[in-house]
Every structure is written in structure tokens, then in C-alpha cells.
Amino acid sequence: MNIKKLKAWITLSRLPFHTVGIFPFILGNVLAWYNTGVIDWTVLFWGTLCVALILSATYYSGEYYDYETDNLSSELGRNRFTGGSQVIQSGLIPRHHALIASLVSVSAALVIGFILHFYYDTGAFTLPLGIIGILGGLFYSAKPVQWAYKGLGEIWIGFCYGWLTVAASYYLQTGKFPNIIHWTSLPIIFSIFNVILINEFPDYLADKRTGKQNLVVRFGKSKMSKIYIIFSIGIWISYLIAIWAGIPLKALIFFLPVFILSLITIIQVFKKHYKEHKALENICAKTLIINLGVSVSFILAICF
């Protein structure tokens, strides 16, 4: 494989976007260590690799099944947070190779799931949790389900990138689902929901023309901008609830920059800056940082 092809595969894998799933997974492990005083590093390694493979399968599947939508999205106005990687459109990698890579990634993730379940004896829910993650991620765009085309994509993403990653990682370490993981996952759920929601704004016309029935297509940008603001406030409230549930109070110090950034995006959305191309791209970027910041602030508060 030449350097150009290797770079194309790295771009197709969308590695920076793996962080939205891996950070909450690490958080679950850190929470387990915080509550029990021990951590199995081998389980952490295999679990993180499994999550990365499921994320890869999700992104490869999306590149394959969203090919037409991404084509149209690029023609109507490119946004670096939407419209796919454009690697397939450039001809660097054949479209069907993305589907093959997705299936290979899923197969490898299942193998790791079996290793964790039966060799490391991580608990009866190990495989079911992994399979739910695969179903939520792979079929976000893949036929015949295509959650993103039926108005369920945002809910699945919130569940998989929010509760599931935190709960599964905690369970792999302890075999339990304590209440703190439910409360801690809430602000992550709200923030990742907003990431998906705002990323649908620049793809509105392309999604509408290709039959995607996501929330922005169904209800329009104006109504969904209000939902964005409500969910942003939900991040703040649920973050305080997570502290009440047992997260160290010093988390608020690490969360302060995230809160300020969130407040700025609320003002931008309220003033309808999303109608401007560059401003919308800026809002998309900040919304992603907010999501990552929630998980990182929890991790820093627990570790330091």
C-alpha cells in the first residue's frame, strides 16, 4: 500500500471522530477505578480496541451507504464536519472497499467480544452490550435498517455514544451497573445529540433530496435550533446532577471552559448564525468540543 492510499484510508476512518466514543468509554473505566480502587488494564485495552473497531465499522458503513447524499452535500456546500470524508468520491478508494472494511471491523470486534466474555470472564452482558453497539452504529446508515433515514438516528447516537459506552466500560471492569453511570452519562447524551443535530443543518438540502427523515428534515432548522438550545441547557443541569450523584465537586473547575463555550454556541444559535456557512461550521466545531469537554472534565476531576 502506497503512502497516498494509506492516507486515504486514515481519512476514511475518520480517526478524530473516534474520540466521541472512546473518551466516554475511558470515563467508564475511570469511574470503575474511582469506586473500586482497582482497574484491569488488559480489559481496558481490549475494550477500547473493540470500541474503536465498532466506530470504524460505523464510519465505513456510512461512507458506503451515504455515498449519494455525501455527493450531493459536497455539491451544495462543503462543511468539514458533514458530507463524509469525500475519499470515495475522489476515487482513491473503491466504494465497495468501505463496505468490506466495515464488515471486517465488525467481525474483529465480535472476536474481541468473545475473548472478553469467555476468556476474561467480564460478565454475561458483555456480548449483548457489544452487539447493541454494533446494531446502533453499523445500521445508523446501513440497509435495511438505516436509523438515520427513519428519524431514529439521533436517539441511537445519544444512547450508544452516551449511556452505552460509559455503562459497558464500567460493567467490563466490575460486572455492575451502579446509578452513578446513568447520571454521569446524561450530559454526554445531551451533548452528542447536539453534535448530530447541528451537523444535520448543513446537510439539510442533501438529506431532504435523498429521502433522509432525520429531525432537521422533518421539523426544519428553526424548530430544531430551539431543541439545540434546550439540550444545551440540559447539559448544564445534568452535569450538576452527575456531581450530586458522586462525581467530585472539582469537576466544575474543569467544566467551566466547556460551560462558557456552550453559552457562546447558544447565543449563536439563538441569533440564527447557523444560516451563514462559516458560522455554522464554527458552531459544529464548538459543539463537538463541548461533547469531548464533558467527558474529559469528568476524567480530569476523578484522576486529579
Brief overview:
Helices cover 76% and strands 0% of the residues. By secondary structure, it is mainly alpha-helical. It has one domain.
List the helices and strands and how they pair.
Layout: H1 3-13, H2 19-36, H3 41-65, H4 67-76, H5 87-90, H6 95-119, H7 126-138, H8 153-174, H9 179-199, H10 204-209, H11 215-219, H12 221-245, H13 251-270, H14 277-303
Overall description:
- With 304 residues, the protein is mainly α.
- It has one domain (3-303).
- Helices cover 76% and strands 0% of the residues.
- It is built from 14 helices and no strands.
- It has helices spanning 3-13, 19-36, 41-65, 67-76, 87-90, 95-119, 126-138, 153-174, 179-199, 204-209, 215-219, 221-245, 251-270, 277-303.
- Helix 3 runs antiparallel to helix 8 (153-174) and helix 13 (251-270) packs antiparallel against helix 14.
- The radius of gyration is 19 Å and the shape is globular.
- The N and C termini lie far apart (43 Å).
- Radius of gyration, taken over Cα atoms and rounded to an integer in Å: 19 Å
Oligomerization category of the chains in this entry? single chain
Secondary-structure content class: mainly alpha
Q: Would you identify the regions where 5 or more consecutive residues have pLDDT less than 50?
A: none
Shape: globular
Count of helical segments?
14
Instruction: Return the string of H and E elements.
Output: HHHHHHHHHHHHHH
Count of folded domains:
1
User: How many β-strand stretches?
Assistant: 0
Q: Please summarize the sheet with the most strands.
A: none
Q: What is the average per-residue confidence, as pLDDT, rounded to a whole number?
A: 92
Helix content: over 70%
> What is the end-to-end distance?
43 Å
In percent, how much strand structure appears in the residues? Answer: under 5%
